[in-house]
Amino acid sequence: MKITEVQAFLMSYPFAEPVRLPFYGGERTVIKRDAMLIRVKTDNGLVGYAPGPAHERAQHEIHGVIRSFLLGKDPRKWAELKFTGDLELTKTYCAVEIALIDLAARFEGCALSELIGGRKRDRIKLYGSAGMYMSPEGYAAEAAIIAKMGFTAYKMRPALGPELDLETVRQMRKAVGPDVGLMIDAHSWWRMGDKSYSLKTVMQLMREIAKFNPTWLEEPMPPDDHAAYRRLRAQKIVPIATGEHEQDEAGFYDLIETGAADYIQMDVCCQGGFAMGQRVFAAVQKKGLRFAFHSWGTALEVLAAAHLGVCWPGEVVEWLEYPVYAEPGRKVMYPWPLAGEILREPLAIERGDLIVPKGHGLGVEIDEHVIEKYPFIPGPWSYFRLDSPPETVAVTGDHSLKWVAAEHKV
Asked: What architecture does CATH give domain 3-111?
């Protein structure tokens, strides 16, 4: 079996009207959502798929470098292939590698998870993720919707200023009761220009938020400031989560070894792939911490992460992020139909858990009609306008890329 084709398809879903989201210190405007589908074919007609980093640089890397490396190779030898490149190119290759493993598993007639360690369980706990820059009442209503859908936890993104952020948590807890988990993704708190929260403000907020028993507080300080995270966690006020913006493997180990977080997060589809994920999980287990997947893309991305997650016990790999987008009759966040339409059948969710399919490879059928239905629109998908200092920043690519790159300023 030899590889004959390697392709990366970029797709875009443009919003009919820009989604404008005022926050404490500026406004975010979302104009579209992008996705990448990676497809690898072999000379015996088998096809493997993977989600990929949704930006043009990764597509150029796949078509210009990675394809040349893989053509003629046997995907069953995926673990022996020694691809070399710089850090970002290697991350992109690791996304393509998921398609190779999908191919190998389809050939062997087994689930992908059986080739990457063997599954320890058939389901993984999901948290419903939505909530962007709303009023306290809006967050509370959305939390209730997520809980009613059967998810046992809800993640949101506060950005209203310290007083209203605290009021938001109070209203959410009242809306869902004591048994639904609340994850507070505070990555906006350090992205507000001159209004960004200080370490002192974050600690004060933590003490007040702790009264409402959050599952974790995520990224309340700049993610490269590991010392700040160590100080926050040392207070033992609320569990701390971080990791989705780590740029290399060493960063994860520093978080783990130095006690900077209770929950380590990683997007395996764009931060380093399955093998790196396994190594991070092992380090998490050794330190008695927990892992929670970051997954802010399509249903295919969620599924790929799930296959890796079920190879580990739930007390190590505990949570998988499930983005909940708006649909007719479901008023949450914003619509992104491409996220679900990429699969021919929806994922099986039971009592808030994802049931990981046992079919060959990833265990699902990809609907390639999305490639033509959602043609790619070049350019940034989101803009941030800061009031002070006055600045507008354009964001391209996946959420786990560095926040403000100079070439993205407009």
From this structure: 2-Layer Sandwich (3.30)
CA proximity to 40, closest of 68, 4, 72: 4
Tell whether omega for the bond before 389 is within 30 degrees of 0, i.e. cis.
Answer: yes
Tell me the sheet residues that pair with 303.
none
Closest CA to 375 of 64, 32, 22: 32
In this structure, the chain runs to a length of 410
pTM of the model: 0.95
The answer to whether the Cα torsion of 128, 52, 367, 381 is positive or negative is positive
Residue 393 has what pLDDT? 86
Task: List, by residue range, all CATH 3.20.20.120 domains of the chain.
Answer: 115-355
Q: How far apart are CA 105 and CA 95, in angstroms?
A: 16
Amino acid at 34: D
Note the CATH number of domain 115-355: 3.20.20.120
> Which tens digits make up the pLDDT trace of 55-112?
999 999 999 999 999 999 999 999 999 999 999 999 999 999 999 999 999 999 999 9
DSSP category for residue 322? E
Identity of the residue numbered 231: R
Contact of 30 with 382, CB cutoff 8 Å: yes
3-state DSSP assignment of residue 114: helix
- The letter for the amino acid at 242 is T
In the chain, list all ranges with CATH 3.30.390.10.
3-111
Q: Is 306 helix (H, G, I), strand (E, B) or coil?
A: helix
